[in-house]
From TrEMBL:
It comes from the Bacteria. SMART domains: HTH_ARAC (SM00342). Gene3D superfamilies: Glycosidases (3.20.20.80), Homeodomain-like (1.10.10.60). Residues 55-153 form the HTH araC/xylS-type domain. PROSITE patterns: HTH_ARAC_FAMILY_1 (PS00041), HTH_ARAC_FAMILY_2 (PS01124). Coiled coil: none annotated. This is Helix-turn-helix transcriptional regulator. Keywords: DNA-binding, Transcription, Transcription regulation. GO terms for molecular function: DNA-binding transcription factor activity; sequence-specific DNA binding.
């Protein structure tokens, strides 16, 4: 149909106007029949399309708030009508265009007041307000105080926080010094133990006897000999080794997870009962 219509147009001198009109109506009918959209679908499409556009507009405002923006300028930039933009902007943000713009500008001003030493005049200009008095008016409406008072409060808060940190550090140092002094004042006895086979410093060499492998102390005969030596020779210390030998059975499966302390309990109970001190040789004796 379009090709026929084009040929009729190119040959206007001999064209049949009624045929051209018929072709146009056929094209319109075809378009409305095949590509028409019902009212509900159209509303959904327009809503989604406008919502996406409003998001882009909000992003634009957040980036260019310092510029002298107006509803007219933004509507022209995004090619929408002012009325349409104003309506959907209010639905999207809950406030009108100018209030939202001033909100963004005030938040930026508060950020600069907290983080910079810039003058109120410079902050007003940087935030998009025409004069410091305009900034003061909108700022006080939001925060209840002027920008200068707001900055003073922030400085006082930072100062108080610094004082608190300093006080905590002072208390911490005081406690540390007191603990350090108590340690220094305490009588600390240092005992050095040589883990190699030999005598332990606090043992009297004349009152020590080597028993042998730890497992033999479980035997009744050995226990009787130890008691005899205690009475006759005043032996008070015994020395045993091979605590982890297979005979002593500290571990039943040698996996490090299943232990058998029965023999060890018997030895410790016996030595405690007769008031003996003992030392263990950690390395295994050579067999």
């Amino acid at each position: 149909m379009i090709e026929t219509l084009l040929l009729q147009y190119l040959n206007m001198e001999h064209a049949d106007l009624s045929e051209i009109a018929s072709l146009l109506f056929q094209i319109i009918h075809k378009l409305t029949a095949d590509y028409r959209m019902d009212r509900d679908s159209l509303k959904i499409y327009l809503k989604e399309h406008m919502s996406e556009k409003i998001d882009r507009i909000l992003n634009y405002i957040n980036h260019y708030y310092y510029e002298p923006l107006s509803l007219t300028d933004v509507a022209a930039h995004f090619q929408v009508s002012e009325t349409y933009l104003s309506l959907y902007f209010k639905k999207k943000t809950g406030q009108n265009f100018i209030n939202y713009l001033n909100e963004v500008r005030i938040e930026n001003a508060a950020l600069e007041l907290r983080g910079t030493d810039a003058s109120i005049t410079n902050i007003a200009m940087d935030s998009g307000f025409s004069t410091p008095s305009v900034l003061n008016r909108y700022f006080k409406k939001k925060y209840g105080i002027t920008p200068s008072e707001y900055r003073k409060q922030i400085e006082e808060s930072v100062k108080n926080d610094a004082m608190k940190i300093e006080k905590v550090e002072e208390v911490r140092k005081s406690l540390y010094d007191r603990i350090e002094k108590r340690i220094q004042d305490s009588a600390v006895k240092e005992v050095t133990i040589n883990v190699r086979r030999g005598y332990i410093p606090w043992m009297n060499p004349n009152k020590i006897i080597d028993i042998g492998e730890a497992s033999v102390v479980c035997e009744a005969a050995i226990q009787e000999h130890i008691l005899f030596l205690r009475e006759v020779l005043s032996i008070r210390y015994i020395r045993i080794w091979n605590l982890f030998s297979e005979k002593f059975m500290i571990s039943t499966d040698f996996s490090g997870r299943n232990f058998n302390f029965e023999s060890l309990d018997r030895i410790l109970t016996f030595l405690y009962r007769i008031r003996f001190r003992f030392s263990w040789i950690l390395e295994n004796a050579t067999e």
